[in-house]
Amino acid sequence: LNIISVVLSAQVVDNAIAAIFGQSCAINLTPFENVMTDSYGGTRSLPGSMDVISCINTNDLDGGNAWGCHIVLTMGFVTAAAMALPCGRWNLEDNMCIQTVAFGLTICCWLIWIAASLSE
């Protein structure tokens, strides 16, 4: 459960970075060619799959995911780690202000989501 939570958090931050800047970048630790096969049986190499440093739009993967089965260190992972790791140094009681702000942001996100759902 903890590993998938880290992966999902990194993917969400990568998608946010791609939404703001157009793409997210990563260091590819296993650069090899990813080949995509289309519905007609044709194959093509995915751009960026053999680059050590590559940037892709993680929100638009219709043309294939260049990082598909690679081991990558993404900007989303680094950003999520930079926010989470310092909080691990303190006891839960010592970082109550961070937890209170996170709870408030969660409630705000829920309210915005509910309001957007009701407005349609």
Automatic annotation (TrEMBL):
The chain crosses the membrane at residues 65-85, 97-116. Keywords: Membrane, Transmembrane, Transmembrane helix. The keyword Transmembrane applies. It comes from Strombidinopsis acuminata. It comes from the Eukaryota. This is Uncharacterized protein. The keyword Transmembrane applies.
